[in-house]
Amino acid sequence: MEETNREAVATAVQRVAGMLQRSDQLDKVEQYRRREARKKASVEARLKAAIQSQLDGVRTGLSQLHNALRDVKDIQNSLADVSKDWRQSINTIENLKDVKDAVVQHSQLASAVENLKNIFSVPEIVADTQVLIEQAELLEAHRKLMDLECSRDDLMYEQYRMDSKNTHDMNLIRNYFGAVQGLSDDLAKQLWMVLQRAMGTVRRDPTMLVSVVRIIEREEKIDRRMLDRKKQMGFIPPSRPKSWKEKMFEVLEGTVTTRIEGSQSVTREADKMWMVRLLEITRKYVLDDLIVVKNLMVQADIGSVFVEMMGHPDLVTEYDIHLMDPLLPQKVVDELLSKYVQTFTSNITGWLRKALETDKKDWFKETEPEADQDGYYQTTLPAIVFQMFEQNLQVAAQIDETFKEEVLKLCLKQMNSFLIRYREEAIAYKEDHLRDRQLPQCYVQYMIAIINNCHTFKESINSLKKKYLKCTEPTQNDAAIERTLNDVAKDGCQFLLDEVFLDLEHHLSELLTRKWLTGTHAVDTICVTVEDYFNDFAKIKKPFNTEMTSEAHRRVVVEYIKAVMQKRITFKNADERREGADRMIKEAEQFKFLFRKLTAGEETDRLCDAIAAIAEVFKLTDPTLLYLEVSTLVSKYPDIREEHIVALLAVRGDASREMKQMIIETLNQNKPSYAGNTQPIFKDITIPTVTMTSMSSSMAATANKLLK
User: Fold this and answer.
1) Is residue 232 helix, strand or coil?
2) pLDDT tens for residues 458-472?
3) Dihedral sign (CA 672, 677, 678, 679)
4) What GO terms fall under cellular component here (predicted)?
5) Backbone dihedral region of 136: left (phi > 0), alpha (psi from -120 to 50 degrees) or beta?
């Protein structure tokens, strides 16, 4: 307390010191004193109010505690009185056991009295019920059966309540009502018979079918009630639950099955079209029966059962098809789809093989293949193949999207294998032709059709993918198909060019020879032959046509330069060099004119300019400038090699060994690098070399001649 006072005094001193730091503040001392006095009075008032509030709360709490204590004591006294009364009543409860037994006995007797009339008349009611069942008065018969079962069940229930272990009395009741179970079975047989003939019954007497359904509904309610009592009391009458509703569904399902199976009038052995006939008859019966179900079974309330089993929701728009079970279990559907895929894979392999065999037979015909609307040769193979694919994809699309895409992928997979066989057959076709170039007569035309078919295959595949695939991203299989088709087309173009150059072989062998120098028409013949072939090749679709023209141009120029490099001629003097060079330049212009014509004016000069550039090397009259001319040739065509230059100088005929050596060494030191941006010309041209083995053979042959 003292420490608190000291802190308060220190705080006050500090506060006063803060107020009186300047001399002019002394005049306000009285004002400061009054202000602090007001603050002190306010704080004391708040403090008193807070203390008073706390005291009131404590007083209220104490009062409530006193009241609670008093209530607890009262409750304690009451519990003591209850405990005392309970102990005193135990003997009284034991004394009332006789009264309880009397109540149970009274309940049983009351039930017996209530059913006394039925008990004594059980044999008579059983006989009447039997007659009603035989007369097909099913509702009345069921009413009497329910009365008998009710009397039996009530008596057995009371016996169970009185003494559940007394099997003698229970069996006595069961035996007395033994005929009731037989009536129930007979009635059930009548119900199932009516349901088995439901389609005929509903036409003849719809009320009969309605009565059957009402009886089954009553039994279902009784089954539910008895099952509830079993949960509560543990007792259930004999033959319960009857479960007639489940049996009704089984009978109806059997009726539909028998109806469909009974429509098969022929077998596979008797008629190959037995399945078509069976499906048509089934379709007719199903539609007729469903119309009857829709129009006449509404009152019986079992129409949805038939639709559920026959699956034609268009006939019954009032039923919620989403509540219906599928026609086939998913396991059966999966098995059928798996079997379909296996069968389809086997079939499509056979179909494709047969289609290819048929197409191959056409290749050997003496008539040209058909042309499309644009005049391009083609065969019917692509149309046959993709018609097969289209038909099977339409069937698959009726199942679901996933299965449709699976079938398309399977088709494309088989397509890749088929195209590999297609390529092999095209190669075999070319080899057969080479054994006798006169056969087949239309070899060129059908090879063109094979090339064009590759283009058609590509378009058809893309069309199928766009139509039947959601995602058209290229796959590994797509790349394989594209690669195989390009290989087939490339092979076909190569085979046709080989055919051209087989005809040109003799004329190409005349180039750069003495005969050529004195004047031949070899190049004229070459140009005419190439142009004649390319009139047929115009029926090849782009881009294959364009690529083939470029390759033919390259091969003609390469063969011409190859003739130069083979050193078939060595010029003897400047006049021969000038004459040969002029002829080469003229023939280069002929080739330019030809291939400009074939390529519709596209740039073709570079390849032919290589011939003119070589001609300039031959035409040069001053040997001292030969290095400059050769270096110009090398700069234009950097893929030219040392052996090519040696061959050119050898053909020129006037270059000394020292000059050749100097030109080669200088070019090797300053040879430009080949960037590969332009099409190479000299790369595929090899120079024949004389090996030691061939030289030895030649020398040996000469020696033998001399000895002879």
Assistant:
1) helix
2) 999 999 988 888 877
3) positive
4) exocyst; Golgi apparatus; growth cone; membrane; midbody; perinuclear region of cytoplasm
5) left
